[in-house]
Amino acid sequence: MGTVTRINRDDIINGKAGKRQGKPKGAVIHNDYGAMTPEQYVDWLVRRKNAGQLGLGFAQYYVNKTTVLRADNTGNKAWHTANNEGNAWYLGYEVVQSYYGIISDKEFIKNEDMTLRQVAEDFHYYGLKPNRDTIKLHKQFSSTSCPHRSWELHGKSTNAVKDYFINKVARYMSLGKTVENMLAKEGVSAPVATVPNTVTPQPDGKTVKVGKQATHWETGKVIPKFVIGQVYDVLASKPVTKSKSKKAYLIGKGKVATGWILEQDVDGFKTAGGGNTNKATPATKPVITGTTTETQSIAGVQMFLNRWFYGGLTVDNLAGSATYKALIKALQTELNNQFNAGLVVDGYWGAKTKAACVTVRKGASGNLSRLIQAALICKGYNVGKFNGVFSDDLYNAVIRFQKAKGLSADGIVGKDTFEALFK
Ligand SMILES: [Zn+2]
């Protein structure tokens, strides 16, 4: 059925973390929280290496549905878990493009499957058996949400997610000794069971009322099982980009799921304590029209935080305490994912968060620059575009902010400027 493209570039890392004294104990599965393909990771890793920044972290493998990048020999250690035992004794596998909104869950699972085939190949090579001791999650080694997307898809508990991986690796190991052999075998025998994109139902008191006749986002056909005016338990929610909705709710009665309903068809979202937070569903009742996650406004920032970081914010274009808390959470998440900072993602500014902040300056691009823009926008500064590029406009805004705060006005965002922006 499928084929695999291999990019063997052991020369990129080239034993930077040292040689392992013996065979690995197992595999650690990561979700990269990024958007890049394995091909793009080649350039990214080389840039990181040339900048002397490999200490910020790397794994042996970066994998999507078509391509396996091996960035170092598996006989070497890797800095992928923020933990000595994990780095020394476990191979690191990054399932890439795991950021929400980049690819669908279905495509993400294809990336994950290819990753698990590579795990199966390496387990054959090293004589390892897939079990709860040999298949591990990044979050078992340090404080991180990684592998955040696999976690959401496969049961939201360490053992549930691990058992899912273990079963798949065992199945792949039974098909062949190499990824190529497994793929060839899958082509002639029954394919590996497809995994439905379901999330374990966990009603927690939230309910939604079906507001108007729910229709299928693609066909426009009425979905009769969602009864207008009926109140359902919310079993799970996930961000979507279908139609006008930003979110879909898995609804049902008790633990029995009825199906996913788009936010636009919902009228009223209640939490356990009451308090209708329907305002938080802009697609149903547009509070701010014409705003996107790239609009330079507080509403744009709130939509960005909701979309990428589960901010759960009411999009009201007002920078209140909830928005600042969500900003800090997003910063903590980024520092954990990019720099293995090991922070508790609690939305509170403290000494550990400050200490974990890195220096960001003109020419940078990515989520840290985006969050700096977001904080400045919330404080009323014009940053040019809200796009994650540390441009001249952002540089000038940082200088204006630093002057206003009595900080050294160098246009470089270091620990003190981060503190002034986020605290
Ligand atoms: Zn990870």
The SSE order reads EHEHEEHEHEHHHEEEEEEHHHHHH
- Cα-atom radius of gyration: 23 Å
- CATH superfamily of the largest domain, by name, is Peptidoglycan recognition protein-like
Strand residue percentage: 5-15%
Average of pLDDT: 84
**Any idea of the CATH class of the largest domain?**
Alpha Beta
> What's the story with the biggest beta sheet?
6 strands, mixed
Oligomer: single chain
CATH structural architecture of the largest domain: 3-Layer(aba) Sandwich
State the helix count. 13
CATH topology of the largest domain: Lysozyme-like
Number of strands: 12
- The count of domains is 3
- What is the first-to-last residue Cα distance? 53 Å
Which class of secondary structure composition applies to the elements?
Answer: alpha/beta
Flag low-confidence runs.
189-202, 271-287
| Order of strands, widest sheet | 1-4-3-5-2-6
Helix content: 25-40%
Question: What topology does this entry show?
Answer:
Elements: E1 5-8, H1 10-13, E2 26-31, H2 38-50, E3 61-63, E4 67-70, H3 84-89, E5 90-95, H4 105-126, E6 135-137, H5 148-153, H6 158-175, H7 179-188, E7 207-210, E8 231-239, E9 247-253, E10 256-262, E11 266-271, E12 274-276, H8 298-309, H9 321-339, H10 351-356, H11 367-378, H12 392-405, H13 415-422
Parallel strand pairs: 1-4, 2-5, 2-6, 3-5
Antiparallel strand pairs: 3-4, 7-8, 7-11, 8-9, 9-10, 11-12
Helix pairs in contact: 4-6, 6-7, 9-11
The chain binds zinc ion (ZN).
Zinc ion binds at residues 30, 138, 144, 146.
How would you summarize this macromolecular structure in one to three sentences?
The protein has 423 residues and is of the alpha/beta class. The protein is built from 13 helices and 12 strands.
